[in-house]
Design brief:
The protein is mainly beta. It has three domains: about 140 residues, Lipocalin (Beta Barrel); about 110 residues, Beta Barrel (Lipocalin), CATH 2.40.128.270; about 110 residues, Lipocalin, CATH 2.40.128.270. The radius of gyration is 27 Å and the shape is elongated. The N terminus is likely disordered.
Length: about 375
Amino acid sequence: MISFRSTAFLSASLLLATTATACVMPVDVESETKLIDNVWELQQIQFNDGKLLEANPPENYTIDFSPNGEVFVQADCNRAVGSFTLEDGIVSITMGPTTLAACPEGSIGTEFLQSLNNANLYFFQDGDLFVDLAFDSGTMQFSPAGATATTGSLTGKVWQLQDIQFNDGTLLVADPPENYTVEFLEDGTLAMQADCNRGQSLFVLRDDNRLIVEPIATTLAACPEESISNDFIRAMENSAIYFFQDGNLFIDLIYDGGTMRFAEAPTTPALVGTVWKLQQIQYNDGKLLTANPPENYTVQFMEDGTLAMQADCNQGQGAFTTNADNRLTVEDLATTRAACPEGSISNDFITAMQNSAIFFFQDGDLFIDIIYGSGTMKFSAD
């Protein structure tokens, strides 16, 4: 933890002494720009009665000054939005809506928010931001985000939902988390799995960590009674602000409604190069076809964009393409036409592969949804 420097107190004292005769110390445009262009991590709050509160860890206590006069604050397990004004070296902060989660013992979230409401003079020293509190009551010290820890990247990862904590006290747990995922793609699209349903949409990121998700188009399968599929979809459509803490992704909901917590998904298997053995085809009308034995029903996707399949007593070859949103298109599938024994699902497997739509992974298995939300094929690499 960075210790508070005595020179900071001297600087603050000199500034306060100046205000007694000249009202305030002017701050140039460059300093105002520096204030706004960084996300600031609290290091500590030194009160002038000797009390010292340390931010542990600093990345849990941040403030982001938006160019439009808003502030976005993380106060440990809570988030808050407010407004600020700058005038002649004084920053005035007015906190607005705040989440009301009960933070762990040792949290200084409440004191942090109270101190922000009492912000007065601000200045920079050795790259850090110092904010003196009103009535000469103390000083907050901040470092630029990234100086002590990195935040994280929203895109390029698959995020598994852990839970949704609503501010009315309702807690919904994703069980299992790998059934509830979202992936933000570089092209501005997102792909999500909401238990037995899949969805796609568009999203927009703002510089102030605002996240806007357009209405999500999803399949309409009836998930089990205990599923939180619909809750997850609605929550994603109501996304407001995202941030990172301890390697996890958090997304606050609009109207201070609650927070979704995600963890990064483990590395998934590769579609290409693996021989995938069909386990079953589950149709959304309830019909279930089981591959018996699985090794008689396989598909392999090659690096050159071709595929080879075995459908019981028949073999087939074709071409495939995939998109960034996990769409899978199978084309030009040519197969032998042997009459397989009674009980074979050879023709069903071939038809399902020709109608592939979206692929995803869960627990190391490959799943391929069939077009029109009509069903899903499940494959194993074992």
